[in-house]
Amino acid sequence: MADDFEAMWGALAPVGRSAASGGYFRQPWAGAERELRAWFVEACEQRGLRVQGDGLGNLVGWWGEEHATRPDERLLTGSHLDSVLDGGAYDGPLGVVSALAAIDRMRERGVVPARPVGVSVFVEEEGSRFGLACLGSRLLTGATTWERARELRDRDGVALPDALEAAGLPGPQAGDPDLLAGVTTFVELHVEQGRALVDLGRAIGVASGIWPHGRYRFELSGTADHAGTTRMEDRADPMLTYATTALAADEEARRAGARATFGRVEVVPNGTNAVPSRVTAWLDARCESEGALAELVAGLERRARQRAEVDGTEVRVVAESVSGLVSFDPDLARRVAADHTGGDWPVLPTQAGHDAGILSGAGIPTVMLFVRNPTGVSHSPAEHAELPDCLAGVDALADTLERLCT
């Protein structure tokens, strides 16, 4: 089983990797991510799994349908294969590779599933290309509509339908299979995106829920002018409004025990010797409660507008995507966490969004397993998990799936 996991992981390691940074650029419907989805289909076919896909590129490989005594109570696992820009190797692919390895492990044990078990790949989980996180699972569950999604454009101005066409995909079609039909439980394994398991000295954890979080576009407009001849007091500089707002985000988040990050900025005209006319900045905000999230964002908008009055600029804030509090099924989490060698697995919250949160919001009982990340770093080339912990994750996932499918 270790050899199977390492072979699969080795096959994925070079795909979409930057020689300069060591990070990954696996953008949805682009070359590297398409190569990974082709790899997934081949890996499923090698295992005799029946592969289904839709016009968006979501995929599921099904195992055990021919022997299932409860065929209408399907069990789903898996994750995603896309990455953030210059991301790590483990976020997403670890869950997919571990799911395939867990199927192998259960077969070695002679498990005959009473429920069909599916391994899923959801597209555009990160939202790094079209700005809406978990786009594939949102469309599958109806959390967003194709009418809205088809209007999305990436930072190069490419519309989503055109990106799909370039990838050889037609987009959602009336005849697409319902990949979630009959799914009554979802299990997602993921590398931990933090240090809780490191601090606890444990290799495996179980998620209790996901903090509310959202992405907000701050559009700050002013007046372009000459950097040399325009007196400071005569400027309407949106960069000053942005800088003050970014500092306010850090201050407010620290005070509230929340998270607030401006990680993407676009400047027009983006010239060294020009006062900008426009700054667009994207805020990622995460809080323990939905009320705290709304209060944090409203407070930052208020402070941006106060600064704009000083700078002579204008402010517009647009919520691009907002996800509410997710509380995973507590009974399911306790069952999965209980009674393992070395004691119960710890149950802990996460501040990161996942497809599991979307499926849980759609009423599908859901549980997440975390694998220890010794660096505590994620969305970065430094993201990591040690091989023994990865293999412990495969065993944990196989144990969990075996409990649930038999």
Automatic annotation (TrEMBL):
One of its GO terms (molecular function) is N-carbamoyl-L-amino-acid hydrolase activity. Allantoate binds at residues 215, 273, 286. It comes from the Bacteria. Zn(2+) 1 binds at residues 80, 91, 190. Keywords: Hydrolase, Metal-binding, Zinc. The keyword Metal-binding applies. Pfam families: Peptidase_M20. Zn(2+) 2 binds at residues 91, 126, 379. Binds 2 Zn(2+) ions per subunit. Gene3D superfamilies: 3.30.70.360, Zn peptidases. Its EC number is 3.5.1.87. InterPro entries: Amidase_Cbmase, Bact_exopeptidase_dim_dom, Peptidase_M20. Its cofactor is Zn(2+). Belongs to the peptidase M20 family. This is N-carbamoyl-L-amino-acid hydrolase.
